[in-house]
Amino acid sequence: MIKTQLANIRIILREIAKKLRNFNLYPSIPPSTDEYQLRTERITTRVFIILLTLSLSIILLYHSLIKITKTDVHKTPTLEKYERFYSLYPNTLTCPCKNILIPYAEIVEIKYSLHEVCSSDLVSLRWFHYLRDHHDESRIYEKDFRSTGSFTFQALGGLCQLANRTIADGYSQFLLNQYISATIASRVLLASEVKILVGQFLSLSTNSFLRSLNMIRSTNFVDAFYSERKTNYLLEILKIVGIHLFESPAAYADCRCDLSVKCSAPSSIYENHNQPPVFTIPGLYRGCYIMEALLQSNLKCFYNQTCVRQLQSHINSTVEFSLTVLHNQNKSKYPTNSTIEQILTELMVEEWEESIDYEKYYKVCEPVECSYSYQTGNEKVYIVTASFGLAGGLVSVLKTGVPIVIRFFRKKNSASTAPVEVNNFNLFPSIPPSTNEKDLEYERLSTRIFLILLVFTVAILSLYNVLLVTITIDKPPHPTLEEYEDLYSIYSNSLLCPCKNILIDYSNILHVDYTLHEVCSSHFMNRGWLDSVHTFGFFQMMNREDFRISGHYLFKGLNDLCQLVNRTIAESYAQFRLNQYLSTTVVSSELFKSQMETLVEQFRSTITNNFLHLIHMIRQTTHTNAFYSALITNYDLYANSVNLRIATRTTVYDECRCDLSSSCSVDYPIYYPNTKNLTYSVPGLKRGCYILDALLQSNLGCLYNATCLKELKSHYMFIFDRETPIKPLNPSLSSKYAPNSTIEQILRKLMIEEWNLFIKYDKYYSQCQPVECIHGYQIKYGLIPIITLLIGLVGGLISVLKLVVPRFVAVLRWIITKLKNRRILPETSPSNER
Predict the structure, then answer these.
(1) Closest-CA residue to 290 (of 211, 231, 217, 209)
(2) Which residue of 116, 434, 639, 732 is surrounded by the most CB atoms within 10 Å?
């Protein structure tokens, strides 16, 4: 049984093998019995099958292995879908926002808390009264804590309120700004950017607060405003003609308040004026100005119950009060010995917390779609479709070309076979083959027309595709700067390179250097010069208007202006560098440079205007409040000899009254000792109602002139070293300010002598990180695309020509036959009649 089955299988296999050996796709019609002809047909079949199989395999393998970039687009995705897409495709996911400007108020909330002292008993009204109201105030000495303590803590409370108001106002302004979001930002990125923005807001608020405070501190010292607490100047009675009040500067150890605003000493309580203090408050200071002493103080004592108890034991107040000590010293970021000035550098903020409503942000952004790209292989359907799309052309080409090639080689290699007769080549033999010479002639004509049309059409298509110019969109990925510049030089009108990072910090793309006016770095701003021009005490020279008494305030004011300007520019520039440049696409180097120059010019204009506005506001406030200068430049205090009441009279400068204008001024005089006889007027330097106002009207002409400086030096007798020359400013240096420019004119340009802008285009480009550059250009088809296209077309072309040409020839044959019949008919008619 098994043997029979095996025998049957062998028979079947032999039959299959026989059929495969004899398989013929090119049988002659009628079938030939010539073994040579049959062998040629079978070889042709096998070569056709092998070439077709090999070609299809290569095509299938090519389409299977090639990687393509696929982009998927999802319309109006939900937040959950976006986060799923982001987890899978973080580098290529792009979700354009419908609303690209989102108010901070919609998505950000900021909470903060100030230093514990700002909500403690130390800044309460009851504590102020407790320190101010004493049972026996006449026993309290001027330098006693009980004389100034209430004002010290009122100043501390005022700083707390100003810090809180500054933050609240700045926060309200901050919420009016808008977050720029061209595309959805991830949670991490949004949190990071908002943290930076909040940091910028806090830094801006702090710097603005401190600049204003420092400007006021400087003005108070330069204009020598007199404190009613007698902390900076003491009133002395002089009897010359009548009774005059004269101010002498207070001193703290070896530091005098007319030379430094930071003179200070520990704040103490005294029982007897001539005895050492009975209690010194740890960390608390008194000084020329209550605010200056406070800034140098710390709150160490007020964290300690024992210290507070000792302090209160020495205060005999009319107000009952039990002070609660500060207690969060372990939780605070400020050490207990931090000075008030150190705490103010962070605007007294203890804790800062920002929260982001990401769901609200996503909703307001309202992304219209999300697209992401990824590398993948071709789909099976595409592979099969594309392969079989080319298969039709391949079959037609191979089916026509293979027999011709095989017959050529078979007859060439066969010595017994006659050479090929080209004239008899026939692609359209009739079935069965005709022996009629006319039929064979028209079949060969069809073949020739077919070949001519095929070759001509293929040639025309090839020439068309060679000459055809098409617009091609090229997208080179991640181009370098050099590649971008090459592309821009060629395709400047159509080049588009989207940035991966659309927000770029100014700090990464530009740098600004500046130099101030020469005077700000000259020896005239040194402590040695300031001490030299103020060595005559108040009682060594009776004329209070003399330059040698108060002229050093002019230079101190100029020095403070230089420092304030420098600090203003430095802090504002640091803040400016935290801003971000919006760049959705790469901009050219020329446009980028122009934009940067415009931004920096706007920055310069803004800080200059703000600085001048602050100075103007302080000057106006000082004048309208009629603050009394201890230098007696605006008002003169005197005591009536009859009733000894203190009265004031306004100072007059060349018929200009200080109660009517703060701009009254004259050249700064130098008098002979103990007289009103003028010996010299310092050119360019002014004395007026207030030192600051007079300084702004002054110029530096004398400081450029060696003769003027020598003359000025001669009036100081033995104070200056006569052998050491005073080096004047250099008038030959290139400067945009004339030597006679007033300080106010110099200040209008923020005292900037030179401003250098360094634009870093290469850094901008690397920060932008263009993902690709898109540009269109005209291009001709390459050889491989042309060949591929022709293969796809030839199959259909052959089929069409095989269908059309024989019929065209048949119609042509019918027409020719008809025409011949008409010519023959007239010739045969006479013979028929005979």
Answers:
(1) 231
(2) 116
d(CA 761, CA 589): 6
Question: Tell me, what's the pLDDT at 833?
Answer: 45
As to burial, measured by CB atoms within 10 angstroms (0-12 exposed, 13-18 middle, 19+ buried), residue 281 is buried
Q: What is the C-alpha separation between 689 and 160, in angstroms, rounded?
A: 33
**How many CB atoms are located within 10 Å of the residue 499 CB?**
21
pLDDT in tens, 202-248: 888 888 899 889 889 988 888 888 888 888 888 765 544 445 556 78
What amino acid is encoded at 63 in this protein?
Answer: H
Q: Containing H/E element for 593?
A: helix 589-624
Cβ contact 347:163 at 8 Å: yes
Angstrom distance (rounded) from CA 25 to CA 33? 16
User: Residue 415, exposed/middle/buried by CB under 10 A (0-12, 13-18, 19+)?
Assistant: exposed
User: Which is more confident, 11 or 793?
Assistant: 11
Residue 674 has pLDDT above 80, yes or no: no
Q: Where are the alpha helices (DSSP H) in 494-588?
A: 506-509, 527-532, 547-576
Q: Cα(650)–Cα(627) distance, rounded to whole angstroms?
A: 12
Q: How far apart are CA 706 and CA 683, in angstroms?
A: 12
What number of residues does the chain have? 834
Residue type at 507?
S
Cβ partners under 8 Å of residue 578, min gap 6: 196, 199, 200, 203, 505, 506, 507
* pLDDT tens-digit series, residues 359-399: 999 999 999 899 888 777 666 666 676 666 666 666 766 76
Assess contact for 260 and 220: CB atoms under 8 A. Answer: no
Query: How is the chain split among helix, strand and coil, in percent rounded to 5?
Result: 50, 20, 30
3-state secondary structure of 830: helix
Residue 186 has which token pair?
A: 């991830």
Chain position carrying tokens 């595709």: 465
CA dihedral 148, 149, 152, 158 (to 10 degrees): -120
Q: 661-670 burial, b for 16+ CB within 10 Å, e for fewer? A: ebbbbeebbb
**Residue environment code for 120-131, b if the CB has 16+ CB neighbours within 10 A, otherwise e:** bbbbbeebbebb
Distances (CA, A) of 281 to 122, 308, 312: 15, 9, 11
Structure tokens at 533: 């021009």
Q: Which long-range contacts (CB under 8 A, 24 or more apart) does 427-431 make?
A: 427/451, 427/802, 428/802, 428/805, 428/806, 429/29, 431/29
- Residue 415, both tokens: 């010595």
Coil, helix or strand at residue 542: coil
